[in-house]
Inverse folding.
C-alpha cells in the first residue's frame, strides 16, 4: 500500500478554482454590455445624465471622444476629473432614536430618512421594528343586524363576561366596542313601505345603514349593559351593506375610539354576502355619487350619507384599513364563507373563521384568529410617488403569500427597505412627470404601529450646472454658436467643432487627402469644411485619424481579443486601461502575479517581466515564481530513491548488500516534522509488511545536494490475529452449505405436502361471481376481466386452468363436426414475459418495441414451425394486465398465429410445455400464465403467487356481427395443476344483450386505387349517426396479392368517433417497387384489403365492412406517366378516362391550398377542379380548368374547411371524378372585435364588453383591453393601461376608479394562433352617458380593474370562477355583434341554382283588420301548433283617442328575494296628466289574477311579495288619464333561486336571481318581391334559453315619418320567414326582430333595407326589368363592404315576368372575407300564392 501526503497541491488547486470563479464572474473577461451612455448620442449634459444612472458628461474643451460615457471611460480617455459632471444620489438619516425594549409599545428605527436618487438608481437601508410580547388591544365588533342574525345577537348579549375573560388573557390593557349595520335605507335594498320602515319585523328596530353603538371602552360591565338593550332590524335583499360600516369604522377614528399605540382589531360578523362599489348606483334608488372616504357619523353615531353616496370598493377598503392600522377578522357562516374567503386574501393581514349559526363559538374563533395575527406583521408604504417603487425584505423572517412576515414578538426584527427610482412611467421619462409624481414623503408603517418611518424622497432631475453658465455667441464658436459645457452648440446653418463651417461655403477636398493617397479621407469618410468626418457603422466609429486612415479593428490582438479586451484601438495603436501595458495591452503593470510564497519577487532567483517570472535557473521542479515545487513530479522522485532508502536505512529491499551505488545523504530521525518538509513519501516494505516514511529537501535534479530524512520506526500491523482469517473463511463456507441444504429440504417437503389431502383442506380457488350481464351498446372492449379469488391459507402458489365456450345457449354448441379441420383460423396467444413493462412498448415506432417484437416472433415462430400448417405470427402487441398478482408490472405479449383448426390441441400442449419450462427458446416467460383463443373457445391458465388473494382472468367475448340478440358464454375453472387448493365456484356465465345500433360505420366505397408515389393510401370511413354519442371500430389490413412488408406496411388501429363526428380516415403506408420487381416487369395486380372489426359503444358495421385497395405501379407510356395495374379495376367504358389518382391537398396559407394528383391511364387533355366550402351544396362549387396535374386554389376564406375533387377529360368528354378531398386553410389574424358596449355604472366605473370579431379566422385565444386618457383632440395623454383577458369567453371587464369627467379611449383587440388582430376603439366620457341599473352581484365573474391602483393593484383585483346570474337590468348587457348586420347575406358567385336537399314549405298570409289592431295567423314550418295572437301597436299611436296614455315604455324587474320582486316602469307619453297605474299579474300557466292599483302618478314602481320561487309570472302594466286607460305593457319574469331548506321564504345568503331571456335572432335576410313588398327571414337565436314562443317584428322608416308597425309571428323553427307588404319604394326601412320565451323578449336584431329600381320608377308591365339594392358600409379600417343578395321571382300579376336582383359582394384588398352565415337560396313565387323555398344551409358559430 502506498500513501502520499501533499499540502502544496491542495493549495494550488484551491487557487486555480478561485481563479476560475473570478473568470466566471467577469474578472478575467468583461461582459459585453451595451453602453447606453454612448448609444444614446446625447447632445447636452442634462440629456446625458438622464440616460442612465451611471452616465457622466465631460466638459473638457479639447476632449475628442464621445462626451457622454461612463465615468471610468472618460477618465481613461483623457478627460480630467475636474471636467466630469457626475451626479450622485444621496441618502441621510434625519432622525434615529434607538429602540428601547423595556417600553411596552411598538417602535421603529430610524424614524426619518432623506434621499435623492437618479432615475434608475436604487438605495437601501436597514430598519428595526420591535413589537412587545404584550401590547394594548382595541377590539371593535361590527355585527350584521339583519333579521336572520337574531339568534346570534341573543348569544352575544350573554357573552359579555366571556369576552372580558378572553381580552384579559390577551392583555391587561384593552378596550372593546360594538357597532351594527344592515344596508342602505333605499330601494331595492330596503322595503320602503311606511309600515316596514317603522318595524320591518316583529319586535325589530327601524332599518339603518350603520350605527356606532358602543364606543371603545375598557368598562366591560358598561359594554354588557348597553349590548343587552339592542334589538334586531331587517332589510330585503340578501347581500348587506357591511362595506359602508367598515369604511366608517376606519375613518371615524375619534368617534370609534381607536387608540394610538394599540393593536386595532375589527371583527366583522355576518351570514350574508356584501354589496360593493356600483351596487348603489341604481336607477331605482337614484344615481349615487362615489364614496368620498370621509367620516359621516352624526352625534348619535349613525351613518347619515348612506343614501347620498355609493358603497366603497374593495381596493378602497384595503387601502384605508392599512392606513389606519386596522386588522379585519371575518366571522362568517358557512352560507357566505366562500365569498369572504376570496375577499380576505386581498388584505395583507386578515383572518377568517366559520361562525356557527347562532355565533356561539365567537370567543373561540377570536382566540384562534388573534393567535395567528400575533405572529404576522405587514410593512406597507403609503403615499409613494409614481416615479418610485418600494420593497421590503428580511433575512430573519419568512414572507407569506400575502406579503406579510412571520415574526417573533419580544425581539427586535431586522428588515431591509429598498427604494428604487424608476426610469420610465407609462412610456414617459420620470423627469417629464409633474413634480408631485417625482417627490414626496413616503410613510413606511408596520401593522399596528402608529409611529411610522418617514422618507423624504425625490428623483434628481436637475440641470447640469455648466448649462446655466453658457456663453452666447462665443468667440470660441466663431461667433456662430454658444459655448456650453465645453462644446459649441452651433446656430442653424453652421457646423463643425467651432461652428466655422457653413454648407454654403465651397468645398475644399484637397486638405482632406493624405500624402500619397488619391481619395479624400482615404475613401472612408466625407470631407466637410476641410476636415474628415469618418463613416460610422452601427452607431459606432469604425475609422479614425485626421484622414480616416486607421481602422479601429486592426490593432494587436491577444488570445483573439482586440487589445486584450483591456483597452481600445485608437489611431492604429492600443490605448490601454490603467494597470495594463504593452502593444496589445497584454502586460499588467503590477508585479502581483510574480509574488512568491514568501512575499518576494520571483524567489530572488529571477525577474518579473510582463507579469511573469523569468527564472535564472529553470528546471522540472521550478514553479512559476522560481521556487522549488516538490509537487511537480514528486511521485517519480519518491520511486527513484525508494530502494536506496531501504538499503541504506535497514539493509532490505532489491539492493540489499549493494548499497554502494546509492549516493544519498540519509539522516535517521525519530519523527518527521511537518515544518521541515511539506510532503513525504510512504511505502510498504515487502519483507515485513511494515510502512516506512521519508522526506527530502533540495532540488531533486541534483541528488548529492538532496538530504533525505528517514523516520526510524516503521509502522507494522499486529501479527497475532492472522490465523483467524482461514477460520473465518471456513465458517462462512459451512454456513452457506447449511442454508443450501435447508432450502432443498423445504422445497422437497412442500412438494410432498401438496400431495397430502389433509393439507388441501380449507384453501379454495374459484370465480368471484357466477353470472355477468353485459349490454353490447355500452361495451368498450372485446374481452372481460373476470375476477377469480382464493380463500384460506395464502401461503404457497396455485395455478388454475380455465376455458371459455361461446354461444352455449345454442344446442350442440360444442359440436364442430360441420367445421372443416383444415380451415385456417387465427389463434390469439398471450404470454407474460419476464421483463417489466414500459410505455415505449405501446408505441409501435419505438426502437424498444420493435426489438422486443422481433425477439418474440423469432422465438415463437421457431417453436410453432414444427406444427403442420402453422403460419408466422402477426399483430404482436404488448400491454399490462391489472390484478394479476405480484407480476402485474410485467409485460403481457398478445400475438396471432394462423393455423388449421385441427392444430388447436397441439398448440395448447406446446404453450403449457414451454410455460412450465419458463422459456420459448431464448425468450424468457413467467410461469403459470398463458391464453390460447380460437374462433369459438379459449383455454388459459392463471397463477396465484404467495399472499395473492385475487387475480383477473382475461376472457374473450367473441363479438360477432351475426351474434344473436342475446347470447351466452360459459367460463369454467378446469383444475389446479400446481398447488394444494381445491376449486370452489367452478363456472361463471356471461350474457351479452345486443341493442339497436346507435350508429353505422362503413367505408365510403368498396374499392380504391392508389399509386406507389402516394406513399400513403388514405381511405375515408363514414359514420351515420342514429343516436348521437361515442362510436368506435377497429380497422386492420390483410394481404391479398399485395404483401405486407413488400408492397405496403401492415396497419391496425381504432377509429373513435366523438359525438358529432361523421368522418375519419385510415392511412396505410405504401412501399416502393423493389429492384427485382422492376427488372422482372412484375405487372401482377397488387391488392390488399382493409376490414372494419369489433364495433363498440352500440356501433354496427354498415354497407361496406371491407374495402379493396389496388396499388398502381408507375410506368412511362409515350412520355406520360401512367399507372399499371388499373386495367382490371378502373377502366372507364367507351374510352372515357378514369378518376385521377392520389388526389392530395395541402394548405399553403390562410387563403391558399395546393391541390395535386396523378394523371389517370390514357392521355387527358386537361382537368376540371371543383372546390367548395364544406357543408355547402356541391352545386355551389367553383370550377377551374387546368392543364397540369396540380393547381393552387386562392382567394379562400381563412381557417375554413374546403372540399375538392378533380376529373380528367379528353375528346370523349369528362371522366370520373376523384374522391372528395378535405383540406383546412390556415389561421389568419382576426378582424377587429365587434362594437364596444359600455354599461355606465357611475362617473368613475364602467363595464366594458365587446362582441367576438366578425372574422375570427381561427380560434380566439385571448383579448387585450387598453385604455387611457385623451384630450379634447382625441390625442392620448398619460400612460395607457393594458389588461390581458386570457379566457376568450369572458368578453367583459369592470373598470373602477376612473377619473371623473375625463374622456378615455378604450381599445380592444383579439388574438388567435396567427397573432393579434386590429383594434376596435371607442372614446367615451362616462360623465356624459346615462347610467344603467345594476344587479345585486357578489364578486361577479368578470375581471375588476382599478384604474388608479398602484403597484398592488396593477392587474385584476378580484376574479371569481363562480358563474352568477344577474337580475333584470343586469350590468351584463346583451351585446349583438354589429358585424352580423353587415354580413347577413350569402356571397353568391356561381351560376345555376341546383336543387337543394332540404325542402320546406311556408304558407304566409297577412290581413290588415283595423287601424287599432293587427291580427296575424301563422303556421310556421311543418309544426302542428297554430295559435291566434292579438297585440296592440306599441309606441305612440296617433289613432288612439286624444289624451289616452301610451304603453309604458319600459318594464324593469329587480329580484329582491326568491319570493319578492320589484316591478318598475317609465312614465308613458300622454297629452294629459297621468292619474295612476294598474298592475295585473298571474302565473304564466294560469291561475288567479292579482290586481294592484296605484293612484299616485309619481310612483312608477311596486314591490310584489309572496311569489312562488322558480315559477314564471306574466305582468301587465297600464296607465290611466281622465280620458281612460291606455294599452298594456307586458313582461314575463322567473325568479330562479337557491332556497335554504331550513327557511323556505329566505334566500341563501348571496344566492343569485336571474331573468333569462333569449339572445338576439340570427342575421336578417331581405328579399324584395315587388316595389312595395319584401320577404324577411331570420334564424332562431343561438342561445334560446328556453322554448321560443314567437317573434316580435318592428318595421319603421329609418328617417322618421309614418307609424311603426309591430307584427307578432308565432312558432319556433330553424328559420322563420315573413312577407311584409305596403312599403314605399326608394325609402330606407329599419326592421327589428326580438325572440320571445316564457322569460320575456330578448335583445333586438336590426337591419336596414331599401327597395330601389334602376330607373327610379315603379313596377310596370315591362318584362325583364331588373331591380337592385346596394348597401355600402364603412368599416373603421380600409375595408369597404358592398352587399347584394340575388333572387329571382315570377310574379303571377305580371305577364312578361320580372327579375329583381340585389347583390351583396364584399371585398377587402382583393380578397374575400369569411362570413358568419353562408346560404344559397332560390325562391319562386307561384300563382297559387304559396311560397316554396329550396335551400341548403350551413350555420357557423364563430
Amino acid at each position: 500500500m502506498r500513501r502520499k501526503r501533499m499540502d502544496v497541491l491542495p493549495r494550488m488547486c484551491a487557487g486555480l478554482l478561485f481563479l476560475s470563479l473570478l473568470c466566471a464572474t467577469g474578472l478575467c473577461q468583461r461582459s459585453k454590455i451595451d453602453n447606453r451612455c454612448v448609444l444614446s448620442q446625447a447632445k447636452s449634459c442634462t440629456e446625458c445624465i438622464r440616460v442612465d444612472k451611471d452616465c457622466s458628461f465631460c466638459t473638457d474643451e479639447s476632449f475628442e471622444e464621445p462626451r457622454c460615457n461612463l465615468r471610468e471611460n472618460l477618465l481613461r480617455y483623457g478627460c480630467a476629473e475636474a471636467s466630469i459632471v457626475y451626479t450622485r444620489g444621496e441618502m441621510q438619516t434625519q432622525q434615529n432614536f434607538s429602540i428601547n425594549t423595556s417600553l411596552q409599545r411598538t417602535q421603529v428605527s430610524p424614524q426619518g430618512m432623506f434621499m435623492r436618487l437618479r432615475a434608475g438608481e436604487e438605495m437601501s437601508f436597514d430598519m428595526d421594528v420591535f413589537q412587545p410580547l404584550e401590547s394594548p388591544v382595541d377590539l371593535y365588533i361590527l355585527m350584521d343586524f339583519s333579521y336572520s342574525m337574531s339568534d346570534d345577537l341573543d348569544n352575544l348579549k350573554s357573552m359579555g363576561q366571556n369576552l372580558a375573560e378572553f381580552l384579559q388573557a390577551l392583555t391587561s390593557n384593552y378596550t372593546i366596542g360594538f357597532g351594527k349595520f344592515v344596508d342602505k335605507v333605499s330601494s331595492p335594498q330596503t322595503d320602503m313601505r311606511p309600515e316596514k320602515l317603522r318595524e320591518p319585523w316583529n319586535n325589530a328596530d327601524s332599518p339603518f345603514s350603520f350605527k356606532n353603538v358602543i364606543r371603545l371602552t375598557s368598562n366591560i360591565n358598561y359594554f354588557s349593559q348597553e349590548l343587552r338593550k339592542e334589538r334586531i332590524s331587517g332589510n330585503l335583499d340578501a347581500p348587506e351593506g357591511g362595506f359602508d360600516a367598515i369604511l366608517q369604522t376606519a375613518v371615524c377614528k375619534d368617534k370609534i375610539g381607536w387608540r394610538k399605540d394599540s393593536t386595532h382589531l375589527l371583527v366583522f360578523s355576518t351570514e350574508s354576502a356584501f354589496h360593493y362599489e356600483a351596487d348603489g348606483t341604481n336607477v331605482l334608488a337614484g344615481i349615487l355619487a362615489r364614496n368620498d372616504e370621509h367620516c359621516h357619523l352624526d352625534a348619535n353615531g349613525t351613518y347619515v350619507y348612506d343614501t347620498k353616496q355609493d358603497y366603497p370598493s374593495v381596493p378602497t377598503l384595503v387601502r384605508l384599513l392599512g392606513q389606519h392600522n386596522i386588522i379585519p377578522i371575518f366571522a362568517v357562516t358557512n352560507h357566505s364563507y366562500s365569498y369572504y374567503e376570496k375577499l380576505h386574501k386581498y388584505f395583507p393581514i386578515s383572518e377568517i373563521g366559520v361562525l356557527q349559526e347562532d355565533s356561539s363559538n365567537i370567543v373561540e374563533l377570536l382566540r384562534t384568529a388573534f393567535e395567528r395575527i400575533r405572529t404576522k406583521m405587514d410593512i406597507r408604504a403609503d403615499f409613494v410617488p409614481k416615479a418610485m417603487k418600494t420593497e421590503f425584505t428580511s433575512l430573519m423572517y419568512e414572507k407569506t403569500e400575502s406579503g406579510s412576515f412571520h415574526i417573533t414578538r419580544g425581539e427586535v426584527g431586522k428588515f431591509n427597505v429598498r427604494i428604487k427610482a424608476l426610469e420610465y412611467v407609462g412610456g414617459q421619462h420620470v423627469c417629464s412627470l409633474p413634480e408631485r409624481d417625482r417627490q414626496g414623503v413616503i410613510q413606511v408603517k408596520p401593522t399596528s404601529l402608529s409611529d411610522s418611518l418617514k422618507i423624504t424622497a425625490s428623483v434628481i432631475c436637475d440641470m447640469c450646472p455648466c448649462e446655466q453658465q453658457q456663453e452666447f455667441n462665443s468667440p470660441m464658436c466663431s461667433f456662430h454658436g454658444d459655448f456650453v459645457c465645453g462644446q459649441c452648440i452651433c446656430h442653424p446653418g453652421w457646423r463643425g467643432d467651432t461652428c466655422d463651417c457653413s454648407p454654403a461655403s465651397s468645398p475644399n477636398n484637397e486638405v482632406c487627402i493624405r500624402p500619397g493617397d488619391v481619395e479624400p479621407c482615404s475613401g472612408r469618410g466625407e470631407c466637410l469644411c476641410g476636415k474628415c468626418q469618418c463613416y460610422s457603422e452601427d452607431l459606432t466609429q469604425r475609422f479614425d485619424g485626421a484622414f480616416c486612415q486607421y481602422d479601429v479593428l486592426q490593432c494587436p490582438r491577444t488570445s483573439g481579443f482586440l487589445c486584450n479586451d483591456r483597452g481600445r484601438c485608437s489611431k492604429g495603436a492600443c490605448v490601454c486601461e490603467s494597470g495594463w501595458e504593452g502593444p496589445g495591452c497584454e502586460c499588467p503593470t503590477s508585479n502581483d502575479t510574480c509574488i512568491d510564497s514568501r512575499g518576494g519577487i520571483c524567489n530572488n532567483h529571477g525577474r518579473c517581466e510582463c507579469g511573469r517570472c523569468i527564472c535564472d535557473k529553470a528546471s522540472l521542479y521550478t514553479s512559476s515564481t522560481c521556487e522549488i515545487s516538490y509537487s511537480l513530479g514528486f511521485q517519480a522522485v519518491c520511486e527513484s530513491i525508494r530502494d536506496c532508502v531501504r538499503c541504506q536505512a535497514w539493509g532490505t529491499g532489491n539492493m540489499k548488500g549493494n548499497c554502494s551505488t546509492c549516493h544519498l545523504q540519509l539522516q535517521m530521525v525519530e519523527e518527521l516534522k511537518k515544518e521541515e518538509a511539506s510532503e513525504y513519501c510512504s511505502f510498504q516494505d515487502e519483507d515485513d509488511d511494515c510502512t516506512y516514511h521519508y522526506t527530502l529537501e533540495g532540488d531533486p535534479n541534483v541528488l548529492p545536494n538532496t538530504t533525505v530524512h528517514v523516520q526510524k520506526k516503521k509502522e507494522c500491523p499486529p501479527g497475532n490475529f492472522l490465523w483467524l482469517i482461514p477460520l473465518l473463511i471456513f465458517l462462512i463456507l459451512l454456513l452457506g452449505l447449511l442454508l443450501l441444504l435447508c432450502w432443498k429440504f423445504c422445497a422437497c417437503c412442500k412438494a410432498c405436502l401438496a400431495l397430502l389431502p389433509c393439507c388441501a383442506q380449507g384453501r379454495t380457488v374459484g370465480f368471484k361471481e357466477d353470472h355477468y350481464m353485459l349490454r353490447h351498446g355500452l361495451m368498450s372492449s372485446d374481452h372481460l376481466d373476470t375476477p377469480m379469488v382464493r380463500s384460506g391459507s395464502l401461503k404457497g402458489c396455485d395455478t388454475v386452468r380455465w376455458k371459455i365456450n361461446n354461444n352455449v345457449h345454442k344446442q350442440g354448441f360444442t359440436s364442430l363436426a360441420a367445421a372443416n379441420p383444415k380451415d385456417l383460423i387465427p389463434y390469439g396467444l398471450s404470454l407474460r414475459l419476464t421483463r417489466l413493462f414500459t410505455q415505449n412498448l405501446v408505441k409501435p415506432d419505438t426502437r424498444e418495441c420493435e426489438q422486443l417484437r422481433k425477439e418474440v416472433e423469432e422465438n415463437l415462430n421457431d417453436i410453432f414451425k414444427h406444427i403442420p400448417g402453422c403460419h408466422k405470427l402477426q399483430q404482436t402487441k404488448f400491454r399490462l394486465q391489472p390484478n394479476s398478482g405480484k407480476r402485474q408490472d410485467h409485460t403481457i405479449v398478445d400475438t396471432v398465429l394462423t393455423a388449421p383448426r385441427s392444430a388447436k390441441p397441439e398448440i395448447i400442449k406446446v404453450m403449457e410445455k414451454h410455460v412450465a419450462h419458463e422459456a420459448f427458446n431464448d425468450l424468457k416467460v413467467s410461469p403459470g400464465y398463458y391464453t390460447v383463443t380460437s374462433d369459438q373457445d379459449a383455454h388459459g391458465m392463471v397463477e396465484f403467487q404467495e399472499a395473492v388473494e385475487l387475480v383477473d382472468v382475461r376472457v374473450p367475448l367473441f363479438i360477432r356481427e351475426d351474434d344473436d340478440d342475446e347470447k351466452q358464454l360459459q367460463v369454467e375453472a378446469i383444475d389446479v395443476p400446481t398447488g394444494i387448493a381445491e376449486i370452489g365456484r367452478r363456472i361463471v356465465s356471461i350474457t351479452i344483450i345486443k341493442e339497436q345500433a346507435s350508429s353505422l360505420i362503413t367505408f365510403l366505397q368498396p374499392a380504391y386505387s392508389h399509386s406507389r408515389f402516394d406513399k400513403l393510401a388514405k381511405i375515408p370511413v363514414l359514420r351515420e349517426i342514429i343516436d348521437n354519442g361515442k362510436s368506435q371500430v377497429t380497422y386492420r389490413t390483410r394481404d391479398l396479392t399485395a404483401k405486407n412488408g413488400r408492397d405496403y406496411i401492415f396497419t391496425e388501429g381504432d377509429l373513435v368517433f366523438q359525438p358529432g363526428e361523421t368522418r375519419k380516415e385510415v392511412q396505410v403506408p405504401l412501399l416502393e417497387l423493389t429492384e427485382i420487381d422492376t427488372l422482372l416487369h412484375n405487372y401482377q395486380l397488387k391488392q390488399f384489403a382493409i376490414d372494419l372489426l369489433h364495433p363498440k359503444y352500440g356501433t354496427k358495421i354498415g354497407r361496406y365492412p371491407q374495402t379493396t385497395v389496388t396499388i398502381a405501379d408507375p410506368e412511362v407510356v409515350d412520355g406520360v406517366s401512367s399507372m399499371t395495374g388499373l386495367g382490371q379495376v378502373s377502366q372507364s367504358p367507351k374510352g372515357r378516362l378514369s378518376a385521377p389518382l392520389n388526389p392530395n391537398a395541402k394548405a399553403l396559407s390562410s387563403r391558399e391550398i395546393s391541390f395535386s394528383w396523378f394523371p389517370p391511364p390514357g392521355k387527358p387533355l386537361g382537368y376540371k377542379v371543383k372546390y367548395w366550402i364544406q357543408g355547402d351544396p356541391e352545386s355551389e362549387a367553383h370550377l377551374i380548368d387546368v392543364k397540369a396535374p396540380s393547381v393552387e386554389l386562392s382567394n379562400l376564406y381563412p381557417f375554413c374547411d374546403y372540399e375538392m375533387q378533380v376529373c380528367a377529360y379528353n375528346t370523349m368528354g369528362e371522366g370520373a371524378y376523384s374522391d372528395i378531398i378535405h383540406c383546412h386553410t390556415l389561421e389568419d389574424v382576426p378582424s377587429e372585435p365587434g362594437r364596444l358596449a359600455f354599461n355606465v355604472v357611475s362617473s368613475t366605473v364602467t363595464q366594458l364588453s365587446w362582441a367576438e370579431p366578425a372574422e375570427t379566422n381561427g380560434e380566439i385565444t385571448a383579448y387585450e383591453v387598453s385604455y387611457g386618457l385623451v384630450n379634447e383632440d382625441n390625442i392620448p395623454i398619460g400612460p395607457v393601461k393594458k389588461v390581458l383577458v386570457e379566457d376568450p369567453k369572458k368578453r367583459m371587464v369592470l373598470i373602477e376608479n376612473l377619473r371623473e369627467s375625463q374622456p378615455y379611449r378604450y381599445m380592444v383587440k383579439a388574438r388567435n394562433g396567427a397573432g393579434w388582430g386590429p383594434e376596435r376603439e371607442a372614446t367615451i366620457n362616462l360623465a356624459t352617458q346615462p347610467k344603467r341599473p345594476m344587479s345585486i352581484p357578489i364578486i361577479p365573474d368578470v375581471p375588476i380593474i382599478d384604474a388608479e391602483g398602484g403597484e398592488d393593484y396593477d392587474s385584476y383585483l378580484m376574479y371569481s370562477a363562480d358563474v352568477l346570474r344577474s337580475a333584470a337590468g343586469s350590468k351584463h348587457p346583451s351585446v349583438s355583434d354589429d358585424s352580423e348586420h353587415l354580413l347577413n347575406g350569402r356571397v353568391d358567385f356561381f351560376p345555376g341554382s341546383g336543387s337543394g336537399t332540404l325542402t320546406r314549405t311556408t304558407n304566409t298570409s297577412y290581413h290588415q283588420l283595423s287601424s287599432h289592431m293587427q291580427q296575424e295567423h301563422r303556421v310556421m314550418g311543418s309544426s302542428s301548433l297554430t295559435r291566434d295572437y292579438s297585440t296592440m301597436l306599441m309606441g305612440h299611436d296617433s289613432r288612439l283617442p286624444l289624451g289616452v296614455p301610451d304603453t309604458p315604455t319600459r318594464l324593469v324587474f329587480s329580484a329582491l328575494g326568491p319570493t319578492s320582486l320589484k316591478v318598475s316602469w317609465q312614465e308613458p307619453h300622454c297629452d294629459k296628466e297621468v292619474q295612476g297605474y294598474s298592475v295585473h299579474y298571474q302565473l304564466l300557466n294560469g291561475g288567479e289574477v292579482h290586481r294592484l292599483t296605484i293612484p299616485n302618478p309619481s310612483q312608477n314602481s311596486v314591490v310584489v311579495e309572496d311569489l312562488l320561487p322558480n315559477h314564471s309570472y306574466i305582468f301587465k302594466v297600464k296607465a290611466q288619464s281622465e280620458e281612460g286607460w291606455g294599452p298594456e305593457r307586458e313582461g314575463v319574469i322567473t325568479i330562479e333561486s337557491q332556497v335554504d331548506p331550513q327557511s323556505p321564504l329566505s334566500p341563501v345568503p348571496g344566492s343569485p336571481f336571474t331573468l333569462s331571456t333569449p339572445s338576439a335572432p340570427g342575421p336578417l335576410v331581405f328579399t324584395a318581391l315587388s316595389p312595395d313588398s319584401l320577404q324577411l327571414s331570420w334564424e332562431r337565436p343561438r342561445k334560446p334559453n328556453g322554448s321560443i314562443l314567437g317573434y316580435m317584428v318592428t318595421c319603421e322608416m329609418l328617417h322618421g315619418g309614418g307609424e311603426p308597425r309591430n307584427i307578432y309571428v308565432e312558432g319556433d323553427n330553424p328559420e322563420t320567414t315573413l312577407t311584409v307588404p305596403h312599403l314605399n319604394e326608394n325609402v330606407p326601412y329599419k326592421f327589428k326582430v326580438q325572440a320571445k320565451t316564457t322569460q320575456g323578449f330578448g335583445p333586438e336584431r336590426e337591419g336596414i333595407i331599401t327597395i330601389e329600381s334602376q330607373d327610379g320608377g315603379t313596377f310596370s308591365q315591362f318584362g325583364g326589368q331588373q331591380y337592385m339594392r346596394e348597401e355600402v358600409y364603412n368599416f373603421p379600417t380600409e375595408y369597404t363592404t358592398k352587399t347584394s343578395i340575388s333572387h329571382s321571382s315570377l310574379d303571377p300579376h305580371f305577364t312578361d315576368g320580372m327579375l329583381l336582383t340585389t347583390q351583396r359582394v364584399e371585398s377587402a384588398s382583393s380578397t374575400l372575407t369569411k362570413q358568419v352565415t353562408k346560404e344559397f337560396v332560390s325562391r319562386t313565387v307561384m300563382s297559387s300564392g304559396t311560397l316554396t323555398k329550396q335551400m341548403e344551409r350551413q350555420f357557423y358559430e364563430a
User: Anything to note?
Assistant: Residues 105 and 135 are 6 Å apart (CA to CA). The chain has 20 helices and 109 strands.
